[in-house]
Amino acid sequence: MPKTDAARPSPEQFLNLIRRQERGRLKVYLGSNAGVGKTYSMLREGQRLKKQGVDVAIGIVETHGRAETAEQLGDLEVIPPRQIEYRGVTLKEMDLDAILSRRPTICLVDELAHTNAPGSRHPKRHQDVEDLLRAGIHVITTVNVQHLESLYDNVERITGMKVKERLPDSVIGEADQIVNVDLSVEDLLERMKAGKVYPPERAERAMENFFTPANLTRLREITLTEVAHLIDRRGRRAEADRGPSSAAERVMVGLSSRSPNAPALLRKAARLADRLNSPWYAVYIQTPAEDLTKTDAATHRILTKNLELAHQLGGIPMTFKGGDVPSTILAFAREYDIRVVVMGKSHQPWRRRLFGGSILERLIRDSSGLDVLIVDV
């Protein structure tokens, strides 16, 4: 008996399979912190592959003066980096064109979240890696968990540090293999004290600030949780390729041009949608008072930046016009079959909430058939 249309894999699923066969494969060594051994492990694998006759070359590697890591370079071919002059300083960046010309079977690329020097083809190294993958070159790379965009707020809250080098979660989510390079907190601190991670004076400062036992323990827990989730996500993606998509409820997050904590709200929505295996929308509700002709340039830049962040996090940024925020959110939810609405906690004065109710109160009151998730950001 022939399959029904509902059970038959879609043309898009077949196309995804073809594209993944044409692309290079991505393997990520993921760690909780600097010094756990990600680069060391990547180079060790490169050496093993070379001994098996595989064409391996190093696109870029950072040993940071660590003798144990430098020893693993051995006789691996290093494609010379580009020299870029910037503000009187010579910077070394991965030479994307040279790698594409050389076309090794496997390219080793350290520090995936790195920001390229001005004048490079792409702003970020992960975009260079995307070009290599599209060209059919397999890539083995390294990254620390705190560089994932959606974890930015959690990491800042835990460590007190603002992580500047960040990359979209989707980059890691698309990896074909993820290896957790784990090291106990005690062993990492011993390596720090022995000068195997940073020079002694820098190691001492690091252990007083970022590399505290509490920070390292929490980051290690986050890494273990994230790796488990990423592996599960890859399994769900493979299952979706084999059959009809079983995506759960669609998620939306509502934004205004004055949302004070929009980036944090977007990151939470992205992580929720990812856990639900659902598509999600970042919807700017544009009221007549927020018409582009009535908003200043600074506000418009902030709004544009927030919508760009939503795209980086894997969401679908959209603008939806309406005269009233709650009713416009509900109209969007009905039109796009949304089941979960994520909103930031209201900080309106109690007098405004008393007369007519806040946006959240009105939304909850009228949201029959919707789950409204209120997050504190």
Task: Annotate the secondary structure layout.
Elements (H helix, E strand, L loop, with lengths): L10 H12 L3 E6 L6 H14 L4 E5 L6 H5 L5 E2 L3 E5 L2 E5 L2 H7 L3 E4 L15 H10 L3 E7 L7 H8 L9 H5 L3 E5 L3 H9 L6 H9 L4 H30 L7 E6 L6 H15 L3 E7 L10 H16 L3 E6 L3 H11 L2 E7 L5 H5 L4 H8 L4 E5 L2
Parallel strand pairs: 1-7, 1-8, 2-3, 2-6, 6-7, 9-10, 9-12, 10-11, 12-13
Antiparallel strand pairs: 4-5
Overall description:
This protein is an alpha/beta fold and 377 residues long. The chain folds into two domains: 11-241, P-loop containing nucleotide triphosphate hydrolases (Rossmann fold), CATH 3.40.50; 250-375, Rossmann fold, CATH 3.40.50.620. Helix content is 44%, strand content 19%. The strands form three sheets. Strands 3-2-6-7-1-8 form a six-stranded parallel sheet, with helices on both faces. A five-stranded parallel sheet has the order 11-10-9-12-13, with helices on both faces. Helix 13 packs across helix 15 (359-366). It is globular, with a radius of gyration of 24 Å. Residues 1-7 and 349-356 have low confidence and may be disordered. Residues 23-229 form the Signal transduction histidine kinase osmosensitive K+ channel sensor N-terminal domain.
